[in-house]
Amino acid sequence: MGGVKAAIAVACVALLVAGCASTTQGRAVSPLYDPFRAGGLPAEDGPSGIREDAPNPEGDVEGTDGGDADTLATLAVNDVAAFWADNYSESFNGSFTAIEALESYDSESPLSPEICGGQTYDNPNALFCPQDDLIAWDRGVLVPLGQQFFGDTSIAALLAHEYGHAVQAMAKIVDGDTTTLVSEQQADCLAGTYVRWVAEGKSPRFALSTGDGLNHVLAGILTLRDPTYVAGDAPYLEQGHGTALDRISAFQMGFTSGASECGKIDMDEITQRRGDLPLTLPEEGSGDPASGDVEITEDVVTSLVNTLGEVFQPSEAPKLSFDAPECPDAKPSPPASYCPDTNTIFVDAKAIAEMGTPADRQDYSLLQGDNSALSVVTSRYALALEHERGEPLDDAAAALRTACLTGVAQSAMSENKGLDLVLTAGDLDEAVAGLLTNGLVASNVNGETVPAGFTRIVAFRSGLVGDQDLCYARFK
User: Fold this and answer.
1) Where is this region: Disordered (predicted)?
2) Which of 51, 84, 348, 426 is least crowded, fewest Cβ atoms below 10 Å from its Cβ?
């Protein structure tokens, strides 16, 4: 049974407005890596949600209360079905048949029914039940919270994931030997193909901007990542949905390359995509998981800068200061700034510590932790590397090149090379969350980012799986 295993996390919508970094202007390059595009589409803000002229939802929903949540979910299922009716044959053999059995339940009610052999009380979820050809959703918690914090179209994306499981069965791209992780990653990818169709303006029911609207959809995906496992739970890595980076990268594959690529996802592809990045936390002596987070102090920031010197070995390492930034040739980008004139990284110790304070769904906020802060400081170090090479630092390409070089650094710090600081499982998800919320890791010397969180993440992932030369060649 596919679907979302846990309730959609309640994320503070104010965090998704890129409040810390302004948007930069610049010159376009190739479509996928263009600072002003998202997966090849122009990156721009605009209306997102149910269209004013959307048709009424169609279909009988068992258990419905006739409320707004069921209206939205039914409309979403109608829209995804319309997408596959028009596009299925372009990518898959066989034929598409729309799912007609729909069911709604209220996870807050002790009388909530059993669906697909499982209890639904206290189980905010959405699912596709293959034996019944049924799509079901929780109208009590899941849909209204997702709508509130991530927007109407995020619910369409959520149900597109569930519909993806139905499409897998029709296309026979999974079988009894397929691991849960592969099945879920394929479904994320298939959801991405649908969301692109919406973003292209082809949906009669939903609209989605490629700037803030798509950022919200990606934030919804991030909150539905698997928990961070400890080493002893490694077998569960193939029985879940994947990390935030796994899920978003699979979604991006579908968004940029289409449904035919989704069927190519298998364990080998996922393993290659993950590279050597850490997936589990070590256990403490008690058997409990290690925290994975450190308190961000001046000593930790100093250790990070020294570690980055070991990783990159620049000819002239940047200086580190905890004083207020003074720079004649760049604007401050708090909580961390880089001044080319003096080759100095300025860090506001109090503000960077606050940025690194752990927070998550139970705190009614998007994911945050130590690497939310450390990745920002790393990005300012990346600007020093670019300055040493004589690259421009104040345009849009510099913003994405900075994110890419930050990815290179984080990949190096994920490996056990005797460095002072080493990233652990979950740290990269914290960096990805920051790329959506404030964009500072993907900002230029003046703290200006690019419009689409989608493209910021593409740049960061380029560095995780690439090297410095790729960053300079791809983002120029």
Assistant:
1) 40-69
2) 51
